Amino acid sequence: MRNDLNGHYAYDVELDDLGRSIRETYTRVENLGTDRYNLIPGKVTEISDEHFRYETVNDSTTKKLFTNNHGLPFREQIYAKNKLGYLKSIEDRYLISNRRSRITFHYDEKGRLIERVEQPDLDKSNTTKRTWAYDQAGNVITGFLWHDDRQIERDEYLYDDHTMVLTARLTKDLASGVIHVVRFTTERR
Fold it and tell me: Is the pTM of this model over 0.90?
């Protein structure tokens, strides 16, 4: 849920027996109170209502169909897994326009995600790639963001020396040189 001065936006997700989303309803909830952080619910307005159904293509491929309020498909996503069961790719296609996109995933020998490449339009060669490196304990230590073959950002992840709990993420914008720091704290109660 996210909010602004006049209300909150919320997703209501219905799952099937396998834990897959079969319906997502996006709504706006009017806040009758004056404090934006303490919701007093008022009128609920439905913004969108999407339904999904799944088809098993084979033992490593599943098709997710997005349907409209008449039950007719308008979009499909095909999820392919490798022989170990890790997600290998997501192919997305809008049925009316035939616009297609693809996300591919690559893993290291320990099954950790090392690369995610997104091509938002298969008719164009533009890609966005994220890569990650890990330490001996399996913690992410660096990440890189690429637009086509140009590196855009570099992330570094810092951990507490004693607990190995993530304490900060440093992101450097390579075009401007600006470094963004996000610190994480743990409160003990």
Answer: no
The per-residue pLDDT string of the chain (189 residues; one tens digit each, 9 = 90 and over) reads 667 666 788 989 999 999 999 999 999 998 888 887 888 888 999 998 899 999 999 999 999 999 987 889 999 999 999 999 999 999 999 999 999 999 999 999 999 999 999 999 999 999 999 999 999 989 999 999 999 999 999 999 999 999 899 999 999 999 999 999 999 998 877
Given a contact cutoff of 8 angstroms between Cβ atoms, the answer to whether 159 and 169 are in contact is: no
3-state helix, strand, coil in the chain (%, to 5): 0, 60, 40
Q: How far apart are CA 16 and CA 22, in angstroms?
A: 6
Residue 93, token pair as written in the block: 């296609």
Please tell me the class of the 99-189 domain.
mainly beta
Domain locations in the chain? 99-189
Helix, strand, or coil (residue 86): coil
Name residue 10's amino acid. A
